[in-house]
Amino acid sequence: MYEYHGWVTIAATTSGDDDAALLERLVDRVHRAVRDAGTLDLVDLRWSAGMPMLHLGGLDKHGGAIAPELLETFTRVGELAPGSYGLLHVWDDQDPDHDNEFRVFRMARGVVCEHADAHLTPVAPTVLDVYEL
Fold this sequence. Notes:
Layout (H helix, E strand, L loop, with lengths): L1 E8 L10 H17 L5 E7 L2 E10 L2 H18 L4 E8 L9 E7 L2 E6 L6 H4 L7
Antiparallel strand pairs: 1-3, 1-4, 2-3, 4-5, 5-6
């Protein structure tokens, strides 16, 4: 099973005072990017308190097909809107190196890097009673 949950606050810059017209254009570009990622389950892009936010989530029997598209889409958002920040949590029980752990992809200043998860890892016994390889 491949499970993913993520969010991004979309921003053009890290100054906190983005030009409204520029931000609208960036949100349009992000919208096109996530629209083109057709295999993702939950994709919710909306404005909240004057800030654009993106939420991603879903489950897939085999992450092999969806994983590259998901990470590419998450990374693309940071490239389009370099002031953006957020987290993407992924658990792929078929990953031979990380099958019993969540991985976290952190976006800060539009740049994505991968980290170990300290909150839900190891999946067994933290989330599940047992986990068999």
